[in-house]
Amino acid sequence: MQARRTILRVLLAAAFALAGYFHIMHPAPFLRITPAWVPAPATVILVTGICELFGAAGLLIPSLRRLAGILLALYSVCVFPANIQHALLFAGHGGGWTGWLYHGPRLLFQPVIVWLCLFAGGLIDWPFTRKDPVAHSPARFPRPHPPTTPKA
Asked: Smallest Cα–Cα separation from 69: which of 16, 22, 129?
């Protein structure tokens, strides 16, 4: 399982680093999908890019891995309104990969991204662990001994 976690961690770090780069260097597409209620959208896009870069680096530093996993999971929840906005703005205008064929799975995949962040951070294991049937059996826990009476 450790090899799987390492591979996913590296891939996730690369994805967040790439996204961070694009948020900082090419913010225009992100500005178009930022909901109107978000204050100072250009600043928010810049800060999100910085957060993605730091989060990606944090996943690769063992002492920061857990914190990075938690913060990237929270980040992924917080940007979900922008993903919805993106889908509402552009999915109806395109067909095929520019329409709901892209946006529908993208919205459904967001909880998986949250899970990946937590998994890469070493906070959760499921579903890559086998359930140990003995670990959950009542026989695992010793029963208390009956009280002993002194012999006369």
From this structure: 16
- For 17-65, the pLDDT digits (tens) are 999 999 999 999 888 878 888 899 999 999 999 999 999 999 999 999 9
**Cβ neighbour number for residue 23 with a 10 Å cutoff:** 21
Say how many Å lie between the first and final Cα of the chain, rounded: 59
Task: Give the rounded distance of the alpha carbon of 36 from its chain centre.
Answer: 25
DSSP symbols for 56-95: HHHHHSTTTHHHHHHHHHHHHHHTHHHHHHHHHHHTTT--
Token digits of residue 70: 């938690």
pTM above 0.85, yes or no: no
Q: Which two tokens stand for residue 25?
A: 């260097």
Q: How far apart are CA 5 and CA 72, in angstroms?
A: 16
Q: Degrees (nearest 5) of the Cα angle 77, 71, 107?
A: 25
Residue 118: closest CA among 59, 49, 54, 52: 59
| Residue 121 near residue 65 (C-beta atoms within 8 A) | yes
d(CA 135, CA 56): 35
